[in-house]
């Protein structure tokens, strides 16, 4: 018997609105369609009315989870057009914030994944440990989200020696907790039974669809802007880009658990080798000539792409924002095929979607 | 340090360039678009070539060929978006309906970026009444 099963736009298994139509034969999904647009706020249009400082504040609000990645990408695009060089210490602090953001984002998703498979004790444990990272972010920036750490020409705040020592100590505690959580994530039978072989995206399909971020790396595609096109001194740090070949929901759990280790490595190197000097070039509105630039940043979920066109005036002539979910959501219909309706929520969530980002 | 290179091309070159890039294993980063000060539509096909973004730009065309048969959803989603934002038609593209705004807002034609903000507000408020 054939059915069309709607999921969303508002559904208990979705953190944000999206609409999926599942075409089923009994319990099995034969095909699917995804519809977006429920969070569209016209941010690109609004950016055409804002100056470069106002735009930093605006783009930070594209997304609540990767709110550092957006101004990080935008500021670098403007700095490239205006030929502004950010002081080395400012670059390192930007990297520290970006990697802390990756830690809390990956932990947020790992917790949600545990919750969706019904493993709520693990979900609560993961989110409890995540608080250590949220505390560090608050100590550095004063905020738990929308950190306001990026300005054109550097970072808004410095990290003192005392704070640096405190962060390193908390990171050690976090690392110890992460080893225990990783052991559960990689070896627990309940989790693997519920996620192995579910929502598979093979490597060749991932390449054909042009997907990115941890979603691609969980399908064996080694793509990471931090290595492929380094920015903000990422070339100074030693870290690996883990890749898992299986392409199922379990692989997406594993890849994030492994990436947490790499982010800790980067943060430690940046803190231990923080260069002396200023963190920014001052707070003035920059003079930006006419030009265009596309900046890529490896946000927690994959590439954030900012294309900026300026005309020599005080506002953006065009700001085009594209986020990882724009490249991972199109893979959802493929992954849903030949899985059961009961797994649809888990498969959709497994791309670590951000529909606020996607819709802008 | 990332780099950016912009090259202006004719519409006839879009598909051959996409085929060449694909055959070399180069990823389509994104297709961006806007309307310039002379009212011409500008579409920028951007590819990731190592640390450089190569942008192949077409100006002043209302109808362009799709490259979704070459780059699959990596091309079809941006093409659908551009149709909605600035009203470019992509020949051969299978449209799934609107991405961001209701069909009734612009009588089915996409013009978000080229409509003044004040007019957009009026249209939205009109829908609420």
TrEMBL record, chain B:
One of its GO terms (molecular function) is NADH dehydrogenase (ubiquinone) activity. InterPro entries: NADH_quin_OxRdtase_su_C/D-like, NADH_UbQ_OxRdtase_30kDa_su. Residues 7-108 form the NADH:ubiquinone oxidoreductase 30kDa subunit domain. It comes from the Bacteria. This is Respiratory-chain NADH dehydrogenase, subunit. It comes from Caloramator fervidus.
